[in-house]
Amino acid sequence: MRRLSRFLALMMAVVLAGCTKPDFSDAEKTTIASLALSSLPALKPDTTNRFADVPVAAALGSTLFFDQGMSGDGSVSCSTCHKIDRQFQDDLPQAIGVGRTNRRTMPLAGVARDPWFFWDGRRDSLWAQALTPLENPLEQAGNRTAYAHYIKKRFGERYERIFGPLPDFSGMPLNASPLGNDAEQAAWSAMSGPQRDAINGVFANLGKAIAAFERSIAPAPTRFDRFALDLATGAEPKGDAVFSKQEILGLKLFIGKANCVTCHNGPRFTDNSFHNTGVPSVAGLPPDRGRIDAVHQVEADPFNCFGAYRDGDVSACGELRFMVKDAPELVRAYKTPSLRGAATRPPYMHAGQFSSLDEVVAHYAKAAPSVEGVSEVHPLELSERERAALVAFLKTLAE
Amino acid sequence: MRSVRQSVVCGRGTGLASIWRYLLAGLGLAALLVGILAVVFLTAPRSSLPAGPDVSRTKNTANALFVASFAPERGVVRQGELQSWLLTLKTKAGVPVEGAAIAISGGMPLHSHGLPTSPQATDYLGDGRYRIEGVKFTMSGWWQLHFAISATAGSDTVLFNVVL
Fold first, then answer.
1. Which among A2, A21, A342, B124 has most CB atoms closer than 10 A?
2. What ipTM describes this predicted complex?
3. What are the residues whose beta carbons fall under 8 Å from the beta carbon of A296, sequence distance 6 or more?
4. Second-level CATH architecture of B58-163
């Protein structure tokens, strides 16, 4: 009798233990596995930058990334906004360089895997991206001949060991750029074609060195990845790989009813594309139409993949070649950001419109219409408990 | 289930008879639950999902002018990557359609957005096969690719569904 009752109690304990184990369908398990960092393929070579995987180039790029001399007034470096101890972002709604910009600083983990750069994709390679803030009057506010002179003076030997001899700068203006102020633009126009090309070549190499450094910035495994790995292998989750009921509910919502995974897919939680999700505009900032205006900018960029400063052949330029140029859905479309680490880096969206994940989830549930163009988001019935669960799950991507 | 365990735990100190009474009640409830679940599962319709879109890779064009086939050049569809596909055009009699002008559009009908790229017919490979470059599916779900075909035999359209 006693043995039987003990046996029954044991059976019930087994059944109960089974009940608390996460229960996922095969389809859910496949989706969860596709989100795990372990399914991230090796970083592909960047044939448009032949220095992308050259260690000395990355070392110079690292020096330049943290060097405040790489700015018009000597006060701003890439790292001013891309802070190394803050996921390479700055926690501000809009970045502040030499001036105040109109966009949120993007974090850099895994950035070398992006096909498009900036929130609107106005650049098509990591090295072309790195050049843009250098000449933006609100960011590093320099000009390309000034950078070339600075490099020769400060890092000439290191530069030449990697990229070969610097051009002869005699007779070249100290400050000139096609994007600068009136005087700088005039000075640029007065330069000869070969002079401009020589300066552009040096300038492009600076971007290639910085890009080589940035390729090393990779996302780190999180609690979610440990959980996903155990789920895939059937191992018993241990320690922080154990998900609470709330976190499991959040994960199920994320890949199910809440449709987050539609755009936030793959191991980087992004489809690398652009969407209008009805994110409101910010009062006081200049008009911002997102991707639709970036199309012309990337086409006009002399450092784009079709330009003269690309290494390798044109077969690497598929994204630019097959770019959508004029669809209505490009209006106020912004890049899907990776959600890895997002929980610990508010504020959110392209101009820091939301100060918490609760606000982000509320925005997507409400699906307010876009101020311009059409939002792709549909309203969603989510209880308080479900919203909290989604936020709890997002936190597992930052622990 | 939880109440069963609580019954067992609570019953432990109050004598054998009461343990059995609780256990019996617990088992009775469990049997009832199994019965309800069985009824639910057995009476559920065999297929609760609506029939999906036609995903055949070979079909007649809208006005039956051509037979079109559409398949990834390397055999597999990869989400999130630029890929080349092959559009093969033949007449009903099986003669390859050469020199066709092809315009491509498409999107996700349930998401009311177009394609994330602008695929183009970039090469004619012979035997009615056209290389379509720049195809990219950025998310899972139901995609549509629409081809407007113009050849000496006339103009026609064809729509292919791709479900990821």
1. A342
2. 0.88
3. none
4. Sandwich (2.60)
